[in-house]
Design a protein that fits this description.
Elements lengths: L6 H28 L2 H15 L3 E5 L5 H15 L1 H14 L1 E7 L2 E4 L5 E6 L2 E12 H8 L12 E9 L4 E6 L5 E6 L7 E4 L18 H25 L2 E4 L9 H5 L4 E4 L7 E3 L5 H19 L15 H9 L3 H26 L9 E5 L2 E5 L6 H4 L3 E6 L2 H20 L6 H11 L17
Parallel strand pairs: 10-11
Antiparallel strand pairs: 1-15, 2-3, 2-9, 4-5, 5-6, 6-7, 7-8, 10-12, 13-14
Length: 448
């Protein structure tokens, strides 16, 4: 049966699609700029830094913690990890990126096909455009297209979600527009990362598109390219010399000079020979380092993160720079950590409430035993009642926690009466990536 959208939802759908179309040209340009070799490497480093290693803490019934940890970590890696990393890259390139736990699992909200509704400070919904083959659409939504016969034909859809009412609609745009499915009081919201607000003087201000890392770095990337072209130009001129042949007394001089220079004629008011400019390596080095430092400052990715060592005079100075985290970097880490923690909690809640027939197939190892989950065995057996918290979201998080855990361990050893040393050791081993249960001795109760 055909269902029409309520009038407010129809307006949100139309305005959302209009915004997506307005932004498409700028987003495509930013994607091209992000493919420049240096920027591509910088974005890879940024993703690894803030989300390269996800470390979760599972709390709840003690006898289920190890099983729940294995099940959730496997589900995260299979269903969420790549989408989260792609969304962070979207955020860096286009100024925003997001993930939404839909009724059919986590979905990325790409800038080319999605937008938020409302203000970036407090979005109240989103619009997402997506497509799929007819065969997949029938499997998900039922046979709502009896007149179509080509199973490979691609159908276009749009998803509209309003957080304040919980309404969620999937609408087919191919042919006569149809609401193919809707949900009431849907409990999850789109999780967004937003960049810097675009100034009103910007030509693209009306699109509402925030400013991402690529745009912030663009001025300095242009300077790098200008420098490279200047180096090439000066390198071509470095063996050039002007020769005033009218002032020569020895006609063999040009032949001798041509062994060292490429000669060009000169006017009579110059000396007999005048070498042209040569490339200054010191100037090139200074300009390149300045550009790299500016890019590092605005992106939050340090030169050490990129394996580029700045000029330092001592090993102590180098170590200081390596350990120094910028305010920009710490802000990004905290922003991503909170964002990923929300996605993790949504994913656990969604997994526990899945119908039996839609439970994804998961194979996990717990100790020496292999456990499998799927339609035959629900993941709620492992995850229901458990609490999932993101401890660390990236490699910088991991290194920082290791240093703090080591300092805590040293303090606990110095003041044994003030700390629970077993818990401190467990925390320290966990920060190193080890399961404390494999190493700590279990004290047996005395025999009676």
């Amino acid at each position: 049966m055909r269902r029409e959208l309520p009038e407010p939802v129809e307006r949100y759908l139309q305005s959302g699609l209009s915004l997506i179309d307005q932004r498409r040209g700028l987003v495509e340009t930013l994607r091209e700029q992000a493919q420049v070799a240096y920027m591509h490497s910088l974005l890879d480093t940024l993703v690894a830094k803030v989300a390269g290693k996800s470390d979760f803490r599972i709390e709840g019934e003690h006898h289920r913690q190890e099983l729940a940890d294995a099940v959730f970590t496997t589900a995260w890696a299979k269903m969420a990890k790549r989408r989260v990393e792609a969304a962070i890259r979207d955020f860096a390139v286009s100024g925003f990126g997001g993930v939404f736990v839909s009724p059919y699992g986590p979905r990325r909200l790409p800038p080319e096909d999605a937008t938020w509704l409302g203000e970036t400070a407090e979005p109240f919904g989103h619009v997402r455009r997506f497509s799929m083959p007819l065969a997949d659409a029938r499997q998900i939504y039922g046979n709502q297209w009896p007149d179509l016969t080509d199973l490979e034909e691609t159908l276009d859809f749009v998803e509209v979600h309003l957080q304040h009412t919980g309404e969620l609609y999937h609408v087919c745009l191919t042919g006569e527009r149809t609401v193919v499915e809707q949900w009431e009081a849907y409990p999850y919201e789109a999780r967004w990362l937003f960049g810097t607000e675009r100034p009103r003087t910007d030509a693209y201000w009306a699109t509402g598109l925030p400013v991402g890392v690529v745009e912030l770095c663009q001025e300095w990337l242009d300077a790098e390219r200008f420098l490279a072209e200047a180096v090439k130009f000066r390198a071509k001129r470095s063996r050039l010399a002007q020769l005033n042949t009218s002032a020569l007394t020895d006609m063999d001089t040009p032949e001798v000079l041509s062994q060292s220079y490429r000669l060009i004629p000169a006017s009579a008011d110059v000396p007999i020979i005048r070498p042209l400019d040569e490339v200054s390596l010191a100037d090139i080095h200074l300009a390149t380092e300045l550009s790299e430092r500016k890019i590092s400052a605005v992106s939050g990715v340090s030169l050490f993160d990129q394996n580029l060592l700045p000029d330092t005079k001592t090993a102590t100075e180098a170590m200081y720079y390596a350990q120094l985290g910028s305010a920009r970097s710490q802000f990004l880490l905290e922003q991503v950590r909170q964002w990923m923690n929300g996605i993790a909690q949504d994913l656990r809640h969604w997994l526990v409430r899945l119908p039996d027939e839609r439970v994804p197939f998961l194979r996990v190892m717990v100790g020496e035993a292999e456990e499998t989950y799927g339609p035959h065995r629900h993941v709620r057996d492992a995850l229901e009642g458990m609490r999932v918290t993101l401890l660390g979201a990236g490699w910088e998080d991991v290194l920082s926690r290791q240093q703090k855990a080591q300092a805590l361990l040293q303090l606990a050893v110095a003041l044994p009466n003030a700390f629970d040393i077993d818990k401190v050791i467990q925390y320290y081993l966990h920060s190193l990536g080890f399961d404390a249960r494999e190493f700590l001795m279990v004290v047996q109760p005395p025999a009676r």
